[in-house]
Amino acid sequence: MANTIISPSKYIQGRGELSNLGSYAKKYGKKPLVIISKSGKGRFENIISTSLEDNAVTPVYAIFNGEITFDEISRLEDIYSENDCDFVIGVGGGKIMDTAKVVSLNTKSAVIIIPTIASTNAPCSALSIIYTAEGIIQKVIFCLQNPNIVLVDTQIIVEAPIRLFVAGMGDALSAYFESRACIASGSNNFARGKATRAVQSLSKTCHEILMQDGYNAKVAVEQKVCTQAVENVIEANTYLSGVGFESGGLAAAHAVHDGLNKLAECHDFYHGEKVAFGVIVQLVLENAPELNEVIAFCKSVGLPTTLKELGIEKINHDDIKKVAEIATHPKQTIHSLPFKVTAADVYAAILVADSLSSN
Q1: DSSP 3-state of 127
Q2: How many CB atoms lie within 10 A of CB 281?
Q3: Tell me, what's the pLDDT at 1?
Q4: Which residues of the chain are in CATH 1.20.1090.10 domains?
Q5: What pTM was computed for the model?
Q6: Which tens digits make up the pLDDT trace of 232-278?
Q7: Dist. CA 137–CA 336, nearest whole Å
Q8: Alpha helix stretches (DSSP H) within the chain
Q9: Model confidence over 51-97: pLDDT tens digits?
Q10: Is 322 helix (H, G, I), strand (E, B) or coil?
Q11: 21, 24, 102, 35: which is closest to 63 by C-alpha?
Q12: Is CATH 1.25.40.10 what the domain over 10-158 is classified as, yes or no?
């Protein structure tokens, strides 16, 4: 099996970079379909249109309906065709980004991704998750390539709610530990190969940035300002974590997240918040030396470290066993750990993680 790494063709990050969109976009066509929310259009239309039109590019705006379904994708593709668009720009959060990637795939066009939050590692990946109208996962689509450009305007990121920024750190926290487990077990990554030395280094750098700059970055974003620590963490949340998970692989942290997703008490928590607790559970399973450091980090930035902080006021042991069973389903990523893991192991690790963090 070959060693493989995949990533966006170009990653651009900096304060005020949205105003330079046109100079990058003009290389891909003259009329992009810009997929954006109603509120996002209100905030960013002027700067996007000015930058594009200054470079002889005419945007066609399409308001995202709120859920990435096959019907929504078809509706947007119709708008693309009716207006003779020739590439796609997605501006917003994870679902808009995933939608833009699939529309690009189906129209055989380039795609530029412009995240307005740094809450997940979705911008850089080739993955898109399709839901039903009721919000239930229906299908995961692997696009033929990663985005052509990911453009991150860091001033926009710091103006988003702080909880989203912190949740992004929770998602990024998993990259190093899950890729390390996959490398130890020889598991495949999402590029259908083995991790390269480059992705090992990227994942480790991601972890080092979080440990060094995470708290200071949180303090800065609370003030809606962008410091070097903030720039570093945005890169970790978006690029390093994105390449890390896709070309490194997933293990226990995301499997525990999937189990927690089934509990009604956890529905109001962000992906990265649940992944962060999953990281603690994975480190308990591994008896890893970083366990206490990670718990302390999560507490310092406000990531959940206990079941109570995930909305579970009273532990129902049957529910925790159900989480463990889902996390250890035969097709789950937890089996990328370099040792056998059972539902009983995960059940025990969840309770220990909760107890250690509570104390």
Answers
A1: strand
A2: 29
A3: 76
A4: 164-358
A5: 0.95
A6: 999 999 999 999 999 999 999 999 999 999 999 999 999 999 999 99
A7: 22
A8: 21-25, 38-53, 70-82, 94-107, 154-158, 162-185, 197-222, 228-235, 241-248, 252-260, 271-286, 291-301, 317-327, 343-358
A9: 999 999 999 999 999 999 999 999 999 999 999 999 999 999 999 99
A10: helix
A11: 35
A12: no
Domain 164-358 has CATH 1.20.1090.10: yes
Cα angle vertex 246, ends 280, 12, to 5°? 105
User: What tokens does 324 get?
Assistant: 């463990």
Q: Please report where in the chains the tokens 């005419």 appear, as a residue.
A: 58
For the beta carbon of residue 236, count every other beta carbon within 10 angstroms.
Answer: 29
Q: Nearest-CA neighbor of 124 among 255, 251, 237, 3?
A: 237
Looking at residue 267, the DSSP 8-state letter turns out to be T
Pick from 96, 84, 98, 106: nearest CA to 32 = 84
**Cα angle 84, 132, 71; round to 5:** 20
Cα separation, 88 vs 70, in Å, equals: 17
Q: Are 35 and 128 in contact (CB under 8 A)?
A: no
Q: Provide the annotated active-site residues.
A: 171, 254, 257, 271
